[in-house]
């Protein structure tokens, strides 16, 4: 469900011309892929988010917020070499 929501957000940003929000939307999709256990697509999307962030003329505060989000997700991708499993219920 999180992947569907993240992809919908990304699509709305793309179709609506909300270029300044694309790095954050792409980071959200990357994180959702990671939660779904798809590290390859997570890494692909985080790379796209980084490239998009570099291409935009943003103010320093927005750039900082997006950079922190991207770095956090990038760190999660590097740490989680296997599928993220939900906690076991007793």
Which structural traits does this protein have?
single chain, 90 residues, mainly alpha, 72% helix
What does this 3D model show about the protein?
The structure is a single chain. By secondary structure, this protein is an all-alpha fold. It has helices at 2-15, 22-35, 39-55, 60-79. The protein has one domain (2-79). Helix 2 (22-35) runs parallel beside helix 4 and helix 3 (39-55) packs antiparallel against helix 4 (60-79).
In brief:
The chain has 90 residues and is mainly α. It has 4 helices and no strands.
What topology emerges from the helices and strands here?
Layout: H1 2-15, H2 22-35, H3 39-55, H4 60-79
- Cα(first) to Cα(last) distance is 24 Å
Would you report the number of β strands? 0
Determine Rg (CA atoms, Å).
14 Å
**SSE order, one letter for each helix or strand:** HHHH
Derived from helix and strand composition plus strand pairing, the structural class reads mainly alpha
Domain module tally: 1
